[in-house]
Amino acid sequence: MEKCSWPPLSPIDPRPAVCPLCQAPGQLHVAMLARSALRSARQAGLAARNAARKTTPSRPASTSSSSASSSASSSAGSSASPWTTNALPAGATVVAVGTVAWYYHLFGRNVDAMTPAEEGLHPTKYPWEHEKWSKTFDHSSLRRGFQVYREVCASCHSLSRIPYRSLVGTMLTVDEAKALAEENEYDTEPNDQGDIEQRPGKLSDYLPSPYKNDEAARAANNGALPPDLSLMVKARHGGCNYIFSLLTGYPEEPPAGAVVPEGLNFNPYFPGTGIAMARVLYDDLVEYEDGTKASTSQMAKDVVEFLNWAAEPEMDERKKMGWKVLAVTSVLFALSVWVKRYKWAPLKTRKLVYNPPVQSDVLSRLQPKPKNKS
Ligand code: HEC
Hints:
Bound molecules: heme C
CATH class of the domain at 116-162 and 206-312: Mainly Alpha
Number of strands: 4
Number of helices: 13
Strand order of the largest sheet: 1-2
């Protein structure tokens, strides 16, 4: 008999293959062994799961040898389990929801010192031009507003965070700002004898305060402290709208029934409605150099815009920078989308084809052909 040479053994695959002609043992036996090993592993897993569920406590796991009995016991276990399996997550959910609810009950709600009525009238929302995304301050309005501050508010309110130099180019020329600074005297550094002298103001000096200290301010204002206005627009809910409403909101007479304590003035926008500051703006109080009519609301608008500048002197620059950032990042974003599509194009347009091996070949290998037997 000729020596069988099927199949050609690959040098890198040491497994012996079974020959469909001479039935030499090998790969087939390996496959059967693997299948039986898998089956027993599956049964062991089922038995272990049943034991864990405690549905078959009296039966040792080894007795559930047939797959029929083990599947029967597993279905019995699943029908018995819902209450116990659901109790733990349901309980945990109840505890979690209860904890959040109790925490919200204790700490989550706003606590208001005053009723909404006492809180003051909510200011009207005005269409401030400078608050729009693409708008700057109206700088002639800033100049007028600074005039109103200087001629009206500065006698009571300080603006201590604003140096003269920041007025240059925003609402004053250099010469105007220098002349304004020189109107006031500031302390010098101590000289050789340790004496502090007075010198005229410079551009680097800050706007002077009307009072020496808070006590003097209170003493001059019936016990009320006129707050510093540098950050007032940011410090009050409603910002520009609130201050505009406050300045223009003094009625001729307090409404009937309103209780106005001695020394206070009625203003519906001020929390508590009794404010120590009386109405300060009246038509034609100041004379604008650009010919704008100085109505009460015009002055209020100008001074509020000026105070907004004082609180956010960087606003114009910030908005310009924001538009630059948007422009640059949108170009970069478009570029990165293009690069991503470019890099992924070969993968996205690739077609993967799976050619399954021909099954009939395997069958003919396992079944010896009759004609070869002869
Ligand atoms: C006669 C002094 C005086 C003048 C002038 C004056 N104020 Fe006042 N202002 C006060 C006092 C006093 C308070 C404190 C009020 C209080 O706490 O009841 C005050 C408070 C304020 C407040 C804070 C309100 C709040 O919500 O706490 C703002 C804003 C304000 N003033 C703006 C101005 C502006 C703008 C001007 C100029 C147009 C001006 N004031 C002129 C005395 C003055």
